[in-house]
Amino acid sequence: MNALPNSNSHAGHRVFLILTLLALFMGLMRLHTYDEPFERDITTHAVVAHELLNGKILYQDIFSDRTPLIQWTYALGEVVMGFGLNSIYFLWYLSALITLGGVYACATAGGGRPSVGLWAVGFWVLVSCAPMVQANQPNSEVFINNCMIWVFALILRDDGKGSGLRRAMGMGVLLAVASLYKSHVLVLALALGIAHIVKPPGGVENRKRSIFQAGITAGVGVFIWSGLFAYIYATGRFEDFWNDIYTFMQHYTGDIGENLRRGIHPQNLLPHFLFGIFPLIVLSVLGAGLNFKKNSTRTGTLYACYGFSIALMIALPGKFFPHYYQFWLPFLALSSAKILETLAFENGQENTSGLKSMGTAIAILLVALQIRYYSLDSREWALIKYGNLFVDTQRVGRMINDVLKEDETFYNWGLDSGLHFYSEKPIPSGAGMWPLVVMGGPLAKEYMPRIQADLIRNNPELLIVADYLPKQHPLFHWLLTRYEIFPDNAPYRPFEFYFRKGGKLEKRLESGKKSLEENQQS
Known about the structure:
The chain is built from 23 helices and four strands. It is mainly α.
């Protein structure tokens, strides 16, 4: 009997078991913050998706500065798990599992050792919920990471044989999908494409093959984007679509050159909130240095292009929000494991114990840097990451249904979509869900009358005013002609509640006030 197949089978089962245990552990880590007060991007995507499933039309009834894919993704979560916390957890866990598979596929490319793949996955699991980069919530970055890591796996695992057509088409689909979440993913496509042509798999004799693949990948991306444009145009929404995702975002993003200049500043290139993953950063920088010293290989060039692309993708929008830095997490987990492999097996010598020792040391450091957060509850996580705002939004959002009847709505003078998420109340104005659009810029004059028309038509009983938006604005002055502030706003701070003049809520408040006065007199 041949023992080798059995040995390989046992090794394969062992790898699968460890990957499964790591995946389960990752899911348990995320359960710790299951009910964390969500950041506004998360609740905005969830609320807009909910409205779309209830018949609203994107770019017509609802303003959005994103292409439809993020809303469709959240709609999928709601279809599978229902509206609310379950769908948010489902989307995060599913995307984390997809990235887990991609990290392993990258680490074992080109005949890489399964043990190195397991260490890469282990590092990814330990940083997959990294709190200070808000990695435990499914913002756009987690879905982009799904695509980016698998594009990287496909290009790393290209051995130069065959036409490479299907591989190129797969990369084209993945890059197009990623760019539909955020278009600056095209930086990664360009960088990896150039590296693939300059250093083709199998040697320079395959350069024509690489050029062919790059052309196919680009063609697939153009085809998918053209299909989206055609769909939007055919449904009569192209002008609004273009205004929302291009005209507004161009104003919002500002000068790209200035953004890139700021991106190389140390406080933006290596901000303080990356401290929890510092061991992986040090290892990856060490790996870059060793690769440069040994002269650049194809694999080293691809890693360098991936890392360079991430830095550019973070800098381009010019905002440097912590969740942008989630792009680093799969890459750092992967590159750290690969440098440990280089150190442990240098000069072709087997040193499994050395790999294990170094991997264990890095894992312990990652745990030590992050374990304190797991002594805190989910509310405290939100306070550390965002301050009080989203904790207050969750609390007040869950109080709204004590104020309004089932068929009544409210309008928020603010960016607090969480109020709709936690109350499950519909939005009375899709254009007004993002008031920044009327705070200046090219769309202010066009969108203000839309918001007013929506509010006149839907007559929300309640106005909820955030304390961070200016009250010296024509739209807010117009709102004050229709609404009057609550007599007591203490329970709802930092928000202010206003009732609609002549509305049902005003009558209930007056009735309650009279009842209270009668009880006091008796």
